[in-house]
């Protein structure tokens, strides 16, 4: 699904966020990405959906070398990638339904199919009853569930989540985790950068630890391994 070969990323200010990364993530895996703030986690996952380009190296996603992808082709590539952010990034003037439907409208899906898919993902995240509400009428946890629904409505091959429980209380974080596990059980690859030690240590999956732009640990059913 995702392969990185000798990937380096140096920012203009001299910071090296990726220092020769070699990694392979297979279809259907659930992967935690852990490490201290500033270790390179966000850069690592942003390079997977071409939000950041490496300085050098090769990144292959679903058979496509995205380092050679023309900028005009990036939106088409991202149709197979679902991204979930810590701060939700919902459109405030659109309802819950409209926020999710927007992801299908941009690819010119038919209204009938759009309605079917939106209602299916709203049921998965248990928000059908709030489809007509606006983001500012929802709790933080509900907004994050809408964000997740939006990320998966187009049935992506992989979902990439950057600190998806970072702004949420513990109970809500576990509910968000339940949704990610269900998405993964359906065959979608899930890659989740997180500082949530309890979740990583309780819900065991592959753990990739990054320090100073380097992968220092890669364990199946690993532990968080850091003090928060």
From TrEMBL:
Family: Belongs to the ABC transporter superfamily.
Entry function: Part of the ABC transporter FtsEX involved in cellular division.
Gene Ontology biological process terms in this record: cell division
One GO MF term: ATP hydrolysis activity
Pfam families from the UniProt entry: ABC_tran
Main location as per UniProt: membrane
Subunit relationships: Homodimer. Forms a membrane-associated complex with FtsX.
Organism in which the protein naturally occurs: Fervidibacillus halotolerans
Subcellular location field: Cell membrane
InterPro entries in the record: AAA+_ATPase (IPR003593), ABC_transporter-like_ATP-bd (IPR003439), ABC_transporter-like_CS (IPR017871), ABC_transpr_LolD-like (IPR015854), Cell_div_FtsE (IPR005286), P-loop_NTPase (IPR027417)
PROSITE patterns: ABC_TRANSPORTER_1, ABC_TRANSPORTER_2
Name of this chain's protein: Cell division ATP-binding protein FtsE
ABC transporter domain mapped to chain residues: 2-228
Keyword ATP-binding: yes
SMART domains referenced in this protein's UniProt entry, alphabetically: AAA
Keywords noted in UniProt: ATP-binding, Cell cycle, Cell division, Cell membrane, Membrane, Nucleotide-binding, Transport
UniProt-listed Gene3D superfamilies: P-loop containing nucleotide triphosphate hydrolases
Membrane topology recorded in Swiss-Prot or TrEMBL: Peripheral membrane protein
Any one cellular-component term (Gene Ontology): plasma membrane
């Amino acid at each position: 699904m995702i392969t990185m070969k000798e990937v380096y990323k140096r920012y203009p200010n001299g910071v090296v966020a990726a220092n020769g990364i070699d990694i392979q993530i297979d279809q259907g895996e659930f992967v935690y990405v852990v490490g201290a703030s500033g270790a390179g986690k966000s850069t690592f996952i942003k390079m997977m959906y071409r939000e950041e380009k490496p300085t050098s190296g090769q990144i292959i996603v679903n058979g496509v070398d995205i380092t050679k992808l023309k900028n005009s082709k990036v939106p088409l590539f991202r149709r197979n990638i679902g991204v979930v952010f810590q701060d939700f990034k919902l459109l405030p003037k659109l309802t819950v339904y409209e926020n999710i439907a927007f992801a299908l409208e941009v690819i010119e899906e038919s209204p009938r199919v759009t309605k079917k898919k939106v209602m299916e993902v709203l049921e998965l995240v248990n928000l059908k009853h709030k489809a007509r509400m606006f983001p500012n009428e929802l709790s933080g946890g509900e907004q994050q569930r809408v964000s997740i629904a939006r990320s998966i409505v187009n049935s992506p091959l992989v979902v990439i989540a950057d600190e998806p429980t970072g702004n949420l209380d513990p109970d809500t974080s576990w509910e968000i985790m339940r949704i990610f596990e269900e998405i993964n059980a359906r065959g979608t690859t899930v890659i989740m950068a997180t500082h949530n030690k309890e979740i990583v240590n309780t819900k065991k999956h592959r753990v990739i630890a990054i320090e100073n732009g380097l992968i220092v640990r890669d364990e199946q059913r690993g532990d968080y391994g850091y003090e928060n």
